[in-house]
Amino acid sequence: MDAICLHLEAITRGEITRLLINVPPGSMKSLLCNVFWPAWEWGPQNRPDLRIIGTAHEEGLAIRDSRLMRELIRSEWYRNLWPIDIVADLDGKMEFGNGSYGFRLARAFKSMTGRRGDRVVLDDPIAASDANSEAILERSKIIFLETLPTRVNNEKSAIVVIMQRLNEKDTSGVILDMELPYVHLCIPMRFNPSRRCTTSIGWTDPREKEGELMFPERFSEDEVVVLEKTLGPYGAAGQLQQSPSPRGGGIIKEAWFQYWSNLPELDFKFITADTAQKTKEENDYSVFQCWGRSTSGAAILIDQARGKWEAPELLSIGRQFWMKHLNAKGTIRGMYVEDKISGTGLIQTLRREGIPVLPIYRQRDKLSRGMDSAPFIASGNVFLPKDAAFVFDFVSEASSFPTGAHDDQMDPMFDAIQMVQKMPSIRSNNVIPLPVVSRW
Asked: Please, which contacts does 346-350 make with residues 24 or more away whose CB atoms are closer than 8 Å?
């Protein structure tokens, strides 16, 4: 609470104009930022002219804090110290104003148009229940980048984002990934020395011991343990630790992967592919992976090509990747590509060239397929090439699934695991195209 107040006071002094606060739920962030701070600026700081916009993912939450501030301003205690009158014709639950032309406005995050403020406070732009919705995450990103910055009055106006972390692609993730000029105050429930927060105003997390609690008088060890169990590994990592990718992995643990230096004996090889819809920087990559099934039934990742390619280059890369592994040692059965968008064109063109490309129809969501594949990986049945340059990024992406910024390497791996488990073992030195992969 002291740390939050110090940073809000720095805004009042004009030292900073952009502030991102990541703290666990129950830290009084909404009251401090949306109720007490603007009332403190209007009264004790003699700035009743300030115009404040409070917004949240749900209009009701924004209205709640606006109502609480209005009750505080109208209380006998406040009026005896700072007699600010609320004007009669601007005294509602969504908006109220004073005689100095200052006002307090409540809006839903998705309805930010119409008014501008000296203080724009964005409190929890995304609900925890929507944390894994790609559509909602993308919509929130667009509103944050294209609408919110236009809601400030001038260059001295401030934007404050306060939230618990929910996903690597949430609003905090957008700020951090794009390196937007926000002062970042991050206070996890349990202290992690490797992530000690130090901000530009000179504040540093004072804790020393790993695992030391943020506020043991409020959140005791017993209470935090119950919270961690209730939220589960993803919820606890994001909402409590402000790190939406749990250390050590989520559904897929880094320690589960095995590694090979000498390629094991294989029953057969095949290629799986995932093609991106667009090549813009924020979109996923296109990926080609060559897999083999070992004679013991393990999935062996042999090679990978990954990049952001337009259609002509994607076709060229796919063709080259096929020829590379067709001419290498071992039986190759075919190339398997999801039949959608750019993948459809790839399938059609390579088929005309005589390459056995077969469509995959992924009808189940990626999280479900990840859950299906996790036990196979956990059993030590997935081997990666020990010295390949791409392995570090591959394992990092797998460890952060399903909340990572990218997951393009996961789909072809999930496809490969399904094929290794279900394909018949037919030894041959020729290419053997199989029927269309079952819908999953």
From this structure: 346/273, 346/275, 346/314, 346/315, 346/318, 349/315, 350/315, 350/318, 350/319, 350/322
